[in-house]
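Fold in tokens:
===
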Amino acid sequence: MYGTIFNIQSFSIHDGPGIRDVIFLKGCSLRCRWCSNPESQSATPELSHNRMRCLGVDKCGACIEACPNGAMHAMAENLPVPDRSICKACGLCVDACPAKAMRMMGTTVSVDELSDRIHANDSFYAHSDGGVTLGGGEPLLQADFAMELLARLGREGVHRAIETAGHVPFEAFEKVCPELDLLIFDQKHVNTNEHKKWTGAGNARIVDNLHRVAETFPRLPILVRTPLIPGVNDSEAVITAITESLKPLKTVIKYELLPYHRFGEAKYLQLGREYPFDGPKEIDKQRVASLQRIADVIEQLHA
């Protein structure tokens, strides 16, 4: 079984218990304007060009010479730029670039390859009660691959978690949840029209999936998260409404708020895209703390 990933982040402490490897899978069914991993959105590999690393056409130009499709062109400011309409993502420019300014975002890997990579960190899992988390993008778009990898890790005694935005057919949850020790589930807004405005899709399927998972898999703990975006969902009304909706779900062990950041902004330029969120650059820390106190009711109630 093969899947497409774009990153493996080792020694993470924010995506489940203990020290973890987070494996980021390609493809997403939402288009959140504040997305910090735009390279995750497309299901297929795509070229990323870091202009800060590039040596320039006058000193190098290796990528232009290497491209068999003529997709690389010299810009006025002495930098090469890919014509993404004809780029085949073959990776030859990546291999040719001496400055590592070109990267292919996305690679095909097997379950065996990932398992070998993961077991290099066995000692960290054992000493910290950590494990492996599948993130994205939306890892449930590759449900069969995720299921096989998680099943393998389960047989080998590794703690398994997955992060999902929930906008997938419920059949994906039916495949993956039996192989999980923790489900991390995003809820971004309670109003379906607002949800669609900011993410490209309504939230009816997401809400329904969360409730069906809690009912169908009563032994699977769920951590619910909301990325707190200024001007979008950072109000007491929204967080209170989500909190109230979670109270009947006994398997939801915690409700956590994630402060907005712009760490992914530079990635859009590298992918030849504009950053689509034009709101404030940061969110007030005191506001986050105040809203988190509302969300903490869930942990207290279901402890």
Notes: The chain has two domains: 2-43+107-302, 48-104. The mean pLDDT is 94. The radius of gyration is 21 Å.
